[in-house]
Amino acid sequence: MKERIVLGLGDNVDYEIVWDSATIERLVVDHGIRSEDLSTDVAVDSERNLLCSLLAFLRDGVGGERWVASSELIERFADRFDKEITLGGTGVRCALAMDKLGVGSTVHLVSIDDHVRRLLPASVSSVCSAERDSLDPHLIVQYVAGVRIRANDLDLCAPHSNRIIYVHDPPNRELRLHPQLGDVLSNAEIFLVSGFNSIQEPEALAVRLEELRAHMRRLPESALVFYEDAGFHQPVLRRVVHDALGDLFTVLSMNEDEMQGYLGRQVDLLDSADVARALRDLRTIVPGRTLVVHTTYWSVAVGESAPGFRAALCGGVTMASARYLFGDDADADRYRAVQRYPVHQQGAAVVHALEAGLGPAACGVPAFQLTTPYPTTIGLGDAFVGGFLAALAQR
């Protein structure tokens, strides 16, 4: 079973800090931060600028990912808070989600240390391109709707729950591939491609894409290739990935933020006409035989094979919902319990309208109606992919 599902391409250790408004307010005062200093685009090269970035995201109620000048800066900031050490990277989080349903996999790693060895389940095998141990943690900051920061002239209240990721991660920036990856792929039925968003140099990306394409020649002809999009550190490089590998993608998947980034406009996710226009436009922009978009209110597949992915969409939505409610404590019992939750009625109306308007080329499922005072906002897309691929593996 493990060799049937190969999940790539990067991995990392996450420091998930526990939100503490008092600590952040004290740091705002210590660093003399005022409202005009807040910006999501500031270079994160100091603790002060990290705070200016973080508070700008909180002010707007949005999430994002930003490159940090050093791992030492992340370590120093994280030490001010209680934290949990977990594993990250789309492939690894996907594997962890699948493990909860008894589905094994093989992950491709680019870094390794004792945290990875300790936290990777026995059901998950791995190949690793790293030649030595290293630790470059990602800082994960989650905040819930309504959290407030009052210091100096700041009076911020988060309008939505969300998360921000701060990274300084040379192994993922290089994304070196294991020389025997092709051998691993030779028996694969499902191959997840992700992680290219971390590469920032066009020359390095071109080399990795050429190497991966060569490895992928070993895939069985019937293998399903699932590409999960992400927030690119250098957005212009997204098109380079599509041009190099797009003809190999069976499914290209993304969330609402990535969809809106492609379109260059906001989309009203509860307006079926606006969503239909967005999906039609998106199909002209991105490659892949089937497009999947997963959002807060609904998830949809568009393409000739879309109806065949209904059960997978249900699996993805259910797994992401279980993670939203229960975090790392989500398990098979809670996964099944979520299936009994009521669906989001407005999301269901959008799905019905899309299927009626787009015909057999569209298939969708609504999200569940979820309420919790402490939602998990990190790894929801990864959990969706894990649930989606687990459903495909179990059919």
Structure description:
With 395 residues, the protein is α/β, with parallel strands linked by helices. It has 2 domains: 2-12 and 88-133 and 171-394, Ribokinase (UDP-N-acetylmuramoyl-L-alanine:D-glutamate ligase, 3-Layer(aba) Sandwich), CATH 3.40.1190; 14-85 and 136-170, Adenosine kinase, small domain (2-Layer Sandwich). The chain has 15 helices and 16 strands. The protein has helices at 21-30, 47-60, 71-78, 90-99, 114-119, 170-174, 181-185, 202-216, 237-245, 256-263, 272-283, 310-326, 332-338, 345-358, 380-394, and strands at 5-7, 12-17, 64-67, 83-88, 105-109, 124-128, 138-143, 148-151, 154-157, 162-167, 190-193, 224-228, 251-255, 290-294, 298-302, 362-366. It has a 9-stranded mixed sheet with strand order 6-5-1-11-12-13-14-15-16, with helices on both faces. A 5-stranded mixed sheet has the order 3-10-7-2-4. Helix 12 crosses helix 13 (332-338) and helix 12 (310-326) packs across helix 15 (380-394). The longest helix has 17 residues, at 310-326. It is globular and about 60 Å long.
Give a quick precis of the structure.
The protein has 395 residues and is an alpha/beta fold. The chain has helices at residues 21-30, 47-60, 71-78, 90-99, 114-119, 170-174, 181-185, 202-216, 237-245, 256-263, 272-283, 310-326, 332-338, 345-358, 380-394, and strands spanning 5-7, 12-17, 64-67, 83-88, 105-109, 124-128, 138-143, 148-151, 154-157, 162-167, 190-193, 224-228, 251-255, 290-294, 298-302, 362-366. The strands form three sheets. It has a nine-stranded mixed β-sheet with strand order 6-5-1-11-12-13-14-15-16, with helices on both faces. A five-stranded mixed β-sheet has the order 3-10-7-2-4.
